Amino acid sequence: MPDFSCRLSDQIHLKTPIILASGISGNSDSLLVRAAKSGAAAVTTKSCTLKYRPGTDNPASSDWGCGLITNLGLTNPGVDSMVYLINAYRQKAAESVVPVIANIYADNPDEFVELTTKIKLAQPDIIEFVLPEYDPGLVAEITAAVRVNAGLIPISVKLSAICSHIGKVARKAQDAGADFITAVNPVPGMVIDAYAAKPFLSQGSGWISGPSLKPIALKCISDIYKEVSIPIIGMGGVSSGLDMAEMILAGASAVGIGSALYYRGYEAFTKILVEFEEFMNSEGYNNLSEICGKIWR
Amino acid sequence: MPDFSCRLSDQIHLKTPIILASGISGNSDSLLVRAAKSGAAAVTTKSCTLKYRPGTDNPASSDWGCGLITNLGLTNPGVDSMVYLINAYRQKAAESVVPVIANIYADNPDEFVELTTKIKLAQPDIIEFVLPEYDPGLVAEITAAVRVNAGLIPISVKLSAICSHIGKVARKAQDAGADFITAVNPVPGMVIDAYAAKPFLSQGSGWISGPSLKPIALKCISDIYKEVSIPIIGMGGVSSGLDMAEMILAGASAVGIGSALYYRGYEAFTKILVEFEEFMNSEGYNNLSEICGKIWR
Amino acid sequence: MEKPFSMEEKKSRVFTVDKVRIENDTTHSLIMKEPMASEPGQFILIWIPGLGEKPFSVAGSNPLMITIADVGKVSGQIDRYQPGDRLWIRGPFGQGYQPYGKDALLVGGGYGASPLLYLAETLIKKGINVHVFLGARSANLLILVDEFEKIPVKLHITTNDGTRGIQGFVTVPLEETIQQLSDVQDACVYACGPKKMLYGIDALCERYGIPRQLSWEAIMRCGMGLCGNCKIEMPDTWEEPVNKPGSKKAWLVCKDGPTSFTK
Amino acid sequence: MEKPFSMEEKKSRVFTVDKVRIENDTTHSLIMKEPMASEPGQFILIWIPGLGEKPFSVAGSNPLMITIADVGKVSGQIDRYQPGDRLWIRGPFGQGYQPYGKDALLVGGGYGASPLLYLAETLIKKGINVHVFLGARSANLLILVDEFEKIPVKLHITTNDGTRGIQGFVTVPLEETIQQLSDVQDACVYACGPKKMLYGIDALCERYGIPRQLSWEAIMRCGMGLCGNCKIEMPDTWEEPVNKPGSKKAWLVCKDGPTSFTK
Ligand SMILES: Cc1cc2nc3c(=O)[nH]c(=O)nc-3n(C[C@H](O)[C@H](O)[C@H](O)COP(=O)(O)OP(=O)(O)OC[C@H]3O[C@@H](n4cnc5c(N)ncnc54)[C@H](O)[C@@H]3O)c2cc1C
Ligand SMILES: Cc1cc2nc3c(=O)[nH]c(=O)nc-3n(C[C@H](O)[C@H](O)[C@H](O)COP(=O)(O)OP(=O)(O)OC[C@H]3O[C@@H](n4cnc5c(N)ncnc54)[C@H](O)[C@@H]3O)c2cc1C
Ligand SMILES: Cc1cc2nc3c(=O)[nH]c(=O)nc-3n(C[C@H](O)[C@H](O)[C@H](O)COP(=O)(O)O)c2cc1C
Ligand SMILES: Cc1cc2nc3c(=O)[nH]c(=O)nc-3n(C[C@H](O)[C@H](O)[C@H](O)COP(=O)(O)O)c2cc1C
Ligand code: FES
Ligand code: FES
Question: Where along the chain is [2Fe-2S] cluster bound (chains C, D) (predicted)?
Fold first, then answer.
């Protein structure tokens, strides 16, 4: 069996490279436990904001054929409850516990400082944050602010597939102190029902994830890989072991899955890993570093 | 039967709203004739540059399951030959002739001036141009330059789905003199073959068109529709009459098809129109303006 | 390696109301013109453009039928629908009831009875012996009684106020019937209704060691097993399947359910 | 309204060489371990990662077989492949030959013979009477002769220099055979080879009023009917199908072809 251990940094060692992406089950300690028990090597909480957000009305999501569209409106209990939730997760997971990545979101640097200070109380293994805009100056400012306030906790900047010149932006984030890059967040999209003459989602538009996102994500990840030296947590449309291989070949050190839980249930973690192992065996690879970024070698 | 006539401006009247998108068969006068005879209400030539470009090596395209990826490298005979080709198209099409949209591409405003001056010799019905970057200042500068040099010929700015704040950029283009907006050009993507440990296309990455592009395109078009008052030539993943309806409902005045010719052949034009007519009849619509942008009413 | 999913469109489709059947003061059934391949116990999502989308049980598949209690925004709007009106429906979703054993005991509380007529018909076709237990607070809240009377089932009715059938809870005639079964292992209780009733029935079944399939409700958002909003905790009697570790404390109604099966 | 296409993956898959058969100095056949459902006359695209991708005719489908003349970059690389080596293949693409009538006259020029063995086998199975005409400049450029000798066909060989078979062009024995046919309308010529040969055969067939299916070559780029690079003009004898207006002057080898059918 190939060696799947995944060393993201001196502090962060994952038993395999598969991670639960943010926003999937991430508002429930017991669902995070379920993900951990189902094979996730790390779990990410739902993006949390300073205050509770109820989220949007239904319909908030749909399978439109080539992928999913969702707009749940950042439903989350607020950062204080999230700290509680992370602790509850650790306690309930007991010996099944895996590292937890706390995802935060704010509109401006000041809020990010406050959020970082608060989420730090839960001592997450990584603080991941979603940027409101991809202006390079702002990216640097927010990253530096989170970096300073996170103390010893490593931080990851999560970039969206719509971030133009994503490689350069990732580089800015690295220079401003990011320990990892998480990529990608989905692209905006809209599903219209012609008979209703209305967008399907209550909010009009949403974000496109799942299979149709994969080639876009692979391009982003390979662009980032060429620009940075820090590890990339890759995601976007991974639902099989081969997808996972492609993402690592493009330059990801670990791989997040989200929509795959719709296609394959919580079993997705083990199924994808088994398929990935088949691939590694059939091609004679022994460990992850052999294939990470290999398309460029 | 509903009234399909499509008045893009005082000068440009199309018999239906369906257009051949740029890059599909657009380097051959006789293929443009075939498109016109197959039901295209207007045809667009391949993007042409000042000089001949041979294009990329194979593989240059693939059907990856949810859509297509292509990177043909702007293969085109150069603007002088394109002028010749447009004239040949008109002559060969004879009574089947439909308006021709000449698409041009350059890296900088100066080249755009030269290209516009040259392509004008063919007296295309519309000059459409693809921008090298979406910096708002540059968009305005290039649009103004093309506008001045195009004389009486209407111009359309073609925007890509990766253009962030696409509505605002379209607004800039309108303010700088664009008569129409064409949207969208495909998003960058990469298809990787895990067993080969290589990107599939010879150039590494390419552009994603076809079904998986549709929700992204619909979002762009609806964003543009909210910002501009000029007509939008919408495209991106349209391969059925319902897709076409969705795009018009989002705000397009006419609809381009490209990848659909792969899925349905040149028959795509009539098939899509027949399906669109079925939709219009079943919903009791009488003409295009009733549904254009209706999701916002 | 095969792709782990098929690229079918799962978007809402337009359905047209063919007939409306009044079940009681607040409940009625819509019979559509179109069919939808589905199993009893599965659910669909009904979208009223501009208003919202809510889950409903499949109450018949060919043509598609749904039974709706008017309790709020979406159900209230649907309540006004007449033949010819259109609804947008996607589905079916979730795990349905699985025919099991030779005796079936179907228990419906309030509009929880809605999927049971369809289930009863399916079980009868398989040669299974069907008992139906309908309970409600009062006679005017019972539904589908006339329909059940038309098919070969043994029907037991209870109302809390005694306005129809036996006075009391459905669990009373249910327990009597369980006691009369020749082999509880070869029978199954199928229940749908409020959470409290399900917990009660589960405890009763556990006492007698009889298999049961319970259909749960929760507030759904994504309906795709992603957001986690529909998470419920299963009763202690429910054993965690080995392929779903951790699901006992975190069971998704939209994806793991809506029906659970305890043998 | 149904979706007009299925979301199947059409990406390249890995195939492994099982056997290599030498056909002549520059041509050899690769027999793969895996099958590929396809019809004679269709083509596939072979990708050599890092090198390029080129079209080749299907020369057998179960297992997949291809016959390749070493003329350049990709074919030269494939020429070196041994059992166990891997190739990346997608397809099949395009329109194949359609079995037609009771007599079949198969004409191959040079490596143009490559799809004809597979075609002959398919036609024989349908009870069609098969003649095969193989032509080349010289004996050492002929291919598949031994293979055709093993199956029940009437084989005619020509070489320009007379080193094997009749000296001259394939059109000579072809014309003789056409003249002997009892009913030219119930027969069909199937040809594959250089463009010039195809034009010649088309003119000959036109003179005798015999149906023909010709397989064309062109330089392909997208292989998807989009770029227009594989466009050719069909001979004047070719009537434009009503559902393909304008295609006579703009026929796509990758999508309309590679085989044309003139009745
Ligand atoms: C798997 C599943 C299957 C379901 N099957 C059916 C079915 O077959 N028939 C059916 O009528 N409903 C069914 N429901 C419930 C249904 O989805 C809606 O919750 C119900 O119609 C209320 O929606 P609304 O928009 O009309 O009410 P809202 O405007 O959302 O709510 C109005 C008020 O009613 C209360 N309320 C909400 N739901 C209920 C409820 N279930 N009972 C009593 N009060 C409630 C709310 O708390 C609120 O105070 C099912 C739910 C699930 C999860
Ligand atoms: C529908 C279709 C089916 C085909 N089927 C087969 C087949 O079954 N077997 C097969 O061997 N080839 C077949 N070909 C031709 C094949 O696709 C390639 O063109 C050929 O193998 C050359 O590719 P290359 O990369 O090796 O040569 P390149 O490096 O591209 O070319 C090298 C040199 O060879 C010349 N050349 C290119 N093609 C040919 C040719 N066809 N004949 C003679 N010289 C040529 C070029 O002009 C150049 O000078 C088919 C082509 C088409 C369009
Ligand atoms: C239902 C849903 C909710 C999501 N919520 C969040 C979120 O709160 N924060 C975030 O950074 N990403 C969120 N995402 C994005 C995912 O973390 C991931 O980046 C994206 O879905 C791409 O991966 P996938 O194709 O595997 O789903 C969400 C995705 C989905 C499908
Ligand atoms: C093979 C191919 C070549 C293309 N070439 C060009 C081009 O030269 N210039 C351009 O503006 N767009 C080009 N496009 C983009 C199309 O015009 C269109 O914007 C895009 O494909 C989205 O539409 P579709 O999904 O219907 O294909 C090309 C698209 C394809 C598929
Ligand atoms: S409703 Fe979102 S997980 Fe069930
Ligand atoms: S190769 Fe592109 S159209 Fe045929």
Answer: 222, 227, 230, 254
